């Protein structure tokens, strides 16, 4: 047994010790070590989010995801479906509202609604103009879908094509697993005056009965408003991080870049726009920015004009 004054005192083998657990009579009491006086670090709070299927379901709880794909897997596990059934998610509304689309960040009080696969439909399109009038985004987990349809455009004249429809195939060539900018490039490269076929999957719609049975819970969920600026930032790849929400300046720069993406590429993606802003602000020149974009998006080629406008939109001219 180590006597008083040592850092470690072992209990006796034959029953309890007297005088405070083994200190010999008359021996000075061992001082507390600094390690013993330090309180253990406070545990990180559990991040638990509430979720429903947008067409109607009980409320589930999810936690423990670190990226977008894991988020979809957690939601699927709660409702006993495959992750591939989920087309996209909206925050605080069960409606197909592209302004409430789950992008790169989730507020800690946000309620997540998952929109799942509904009916499949095929439409034939003839490209009479270079632009179809589609703005495309993706869910970060393999599905590209329609975020906006330009009024008066080719697609706008086809009534069966709707915002929220997932693009599953172009001329029977599946595009599941492609990023939105790849899909936009495929559509842009289709020849004019030659018909092509789009296979689309629309989000599952609620039956009136289901809507009535879940209306109260949905209304409660849609009334939830984030109480603070702290958000969970999700990335298509890599781990999620808990951080403060973007500043007004950062949000404005990301919106400008998102608009630029739509005008050049026919896509909108708030996460990608934010990542591009970060890339621009970490670059020392437009040449370095071009290299950073290549690392971010692989071999997708941006014209020099786009890189310069991105540089300005990200606030690097200030």
UniProtKB/TrEMBL annotation:
<feature type="compositionally biased region" description="Low complexity">
    <location>
        <begin position="25"/>
        <end position="40"/>
    </location>
</feature>
<dbReference type="Pfam" id="PF25082">
    <property type="entry name" value="GIPC1_GH2"/>
</dbReference>
<dbReference type="InterPro" id="IPR036034">
    <property type="entry name" value="PDZ_sf"/>
</dbReference>
<protein>
    <submittedName>
        <fullName>GIPC3 protein</fullName>
    </submittedName>
</protein>
<comment type="similarity">
    <text>Belongs to the GIPC family.</text>
</comment>
<feature type="region of interest" description="Disordered">
    <location>
        <begin position="1"/>
        <end position="42"/>
    </location>
</feature>
<dbReference type="InterPro" id="IPR056814">
    <property type="entry name" value="GIPC1-3_GH1"/>
</dbReference>
<dbReference type="InterPro" id="IPR055349">
    <property type="entry name" value="GH2_GIPC"/>
</dbReference>
<feature type="domain" description="PDZ">
    <location>
        <begin position="122"/>
        <end position="189"/>
    </location>
</feature>
<dbReference type="InterPro" id="IPR001478">
    <property type="entry name" value="PDZ"/>
</dbReference>
<dbReference type="Pfam" id="PF25083">
    <property type="entry name" value="GIPC1_GH1"/>
</dbReference>
<dbReference type="Pfam" id="PF00595">
    <property type="entry name" value="PDZ"/>
</dbReference>
<dbReference type="InterPro" id="IPR017379">
    <property type="entry name" value="GIPC1/2/3"/>
</dbReference>
């Amino acid at each position: 047994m180590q006597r008083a004054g040592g850092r470690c005192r072992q209990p006796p083998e034959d029953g309890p010790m007297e005088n405070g657990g083994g200190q010999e009579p008359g021996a000075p009491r061992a001082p507390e070590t600094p390690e013993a006086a330090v309180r253990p670090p406070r545990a990180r709070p559990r991040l638990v989010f509430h979720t429903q299927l947008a067409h109607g379901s009980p409320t589930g709880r999810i936690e423990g995801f670190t990226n977008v794909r894991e988020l979809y897997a957690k939601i699927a596990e709660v409702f006993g479906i495959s992750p591939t059934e989920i087309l996209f998610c909206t925050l605080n509304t069960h409606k197909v509202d592209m302004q409430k689309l789950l992008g790169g960040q989730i507020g800690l009080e946000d309620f997540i609604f998952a929109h799942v696969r509904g009916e499949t439909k095929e439409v034939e399109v003839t490209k009479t103009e270079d632009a179809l009038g589609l703005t495309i985004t993706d869910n970060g987990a393999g599905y590209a879908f329609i975020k906006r349809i330009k009024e008066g455009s080719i697609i706008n004249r086809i009534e069966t094509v709707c915002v929220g429809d997932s693009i599953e195939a172009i001329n029977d060539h599946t595009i599941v697993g492609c990023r939105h900018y790849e899909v936009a490039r495929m559509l842009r490269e289709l020849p004019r005056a030659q018909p092509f076929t789009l296979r689309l999957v629309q989000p599952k719609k609620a039956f009136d009965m289901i809507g009535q049975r879940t209306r109260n819970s949905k209304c409660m969920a849609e009334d939830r408003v984030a109480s603070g600026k702290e958000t969970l930032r999700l990335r298509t790849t890599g781990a999620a991080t808990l951080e403060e929400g973007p500043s007004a300046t950062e949000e404005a720069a990301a919106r400008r870049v998102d608009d630029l993406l739509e005008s050049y590429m026919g896509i909108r993606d708030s996460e990608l726009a934010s990542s591009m802003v970060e890339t621009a602000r970490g670059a020392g020149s437009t040449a370095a920015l071009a290299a950073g974009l290549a690392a971010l998006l692989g071999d997708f080629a941006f014209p020099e004009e786009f890189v310069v406008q991105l540089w300005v939109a990200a606030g690097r001219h200030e």
